[in-house]
Design goal:
This protein has about 450 residues and is α+β, with helices and mostly antiparallel strands. It has twelve helices and 15 strands. It folds into two domains: about 220 residues, Chloramphenicol Acetyltransferase (2-Layer Sandwich), CATH 3.30.559.10; about 210 residues, Chloramphenicol acetyltransferase-like domain (Chloramphenicol Acetyltransferase), CATH 3.30.559.10. Strands 1-6-7-8-3-13 form a six-stranded mixed beta sheet. A six-stranded mixed beta sheet has the order 9-15-14-12-10-11. Strands 2-5-4 form a three-stranded antiparallel beta sheet, with no helix packed on it. A hairpin with a 3-residue loop joins strand 7 and strand 8. Helix 2 packs across helix 4, helix 6 crosses helix 8 and helix 6 packs across helix 11. It is globular, with a radius of gyration of 22 Å. The mean pLDDT is about 95. InterPro entries: CAT-like_dom_sf (IPR023213), Sec_Metabolite_Acyltrans (IPR051283). This is Acetyltransferase.
Amino acid sequence: MNSSPSVKIVSKCFVKPKTILEESKKPYYLSPWDFAMLSVHYIQKGLLFQKPLHSTDTLLDKLRESLAIALVHFYPLAGRLSAQINENTKSYSVFVDCSNSPGAGFIYATSDLCLADIVGPKYVPLIVHSFFDHNRAVNHDGLTVSLLTVQVTELVDGIFVGLSINHAMGDGTSFWNFFSAWSEIFQAQECNKTDELYLKNPPVLKRYIPQGYGPLFSLPYSHPDEFIRTYESPILKERIFCFSSETIRLLKAKINQVCGTTSISSFQSLTAVIWRCITRARRLPIERETSCRLAADNRGRMYPPLPRDYFGNCLSALRTAAKAGELLENDLGWAALKVHQAVADHTSEKVTQMIDQWLKSPFIYHIDRLFEPMSVMMGSSPRFDKYGCEFGMGKAMTLRSGYAHKFDGKVSAYPGREGGGSIDLEVCLVPQFMEALESDEEFMSLVYF
């Protein structure tokens, strides 16, 4: 069993759905969006709690029991990927086999670290990566490893619950819908509710398959070596910057006033700030192009729209760009309008075009090509109810992520713990750029300490 100097793996097991549904005995097919994710990392997010008064063994038992029930609703996560290969026609297909799988992974680990060792340092300590399974795994590895692993790490005075979910199975919306559903089931068990299979918002598991296609798609390859590429992140500094609800409100109002509009959102306003400030920290030549990308949920942009609780991938990376000189010479409103326009231009027609493009020429995302050098990528979302996942331990102290998808310029947005529209940004930069960002007066004047 793999262990780090401060994290010891105590036990590993697999958890299957408590009830085996008839539909789970059939192949579970993936959409074009899911196929595109086969060469990127698992999603790794987790919550840090104060240690509850009851025993850890009791907590682990309840987590496993509620997980088994959650997997009835999300049964594909208990499966494994399976491949069909035709070397003669260069055809490579993948689907989920929910029958021939040991289930989802469940790991119990211990650590000699304290809560203060995680939340106290200025920079997120690298040991946090050890709180997650599937470190550096790409989604194609789901042929041989679990599609979901829960790792519960017991600290001296805390509990960290870390989830690693195969990104070919779902996007951030799907990830947090599962996390929330699992917590909801746990809480229902705590309250001794009779209908343990009830969920307020059950997932919609039926995958989006374009009319006239599928259900099994294929890639034009005969071996995974032709399209799977591993990725190693550079040496980075990772820091959480907090922005109060009042700061966000004033920032949004100021930018909309400057731009003579009311349509620029809080998130777009903050994105403009981080894009400009990271660009200034990098001291790019004025003619150098710098881009900003945002992850956009396509559920409501589909025609007809997909349900809010659609389980799977349904997102695009929107892009806007400018020369470094014009980005910094113009005011903040100019940058915010660029970001806003990229979102406004992302219509249902654009989404349909993207799907049509994939059907004509299937492609796979690669981390080293997806994100341009000297760019900023805004991932995750402050809209997800991440602090609503409590598992009987009260509100989490903080949220942390694993090794996955970390590169210079990656920014992940989370709701602030105080709620009310506050936002936390997890910023990853190479050390010299992080140092420069921390010296940026415009940026640091907005940060809440």
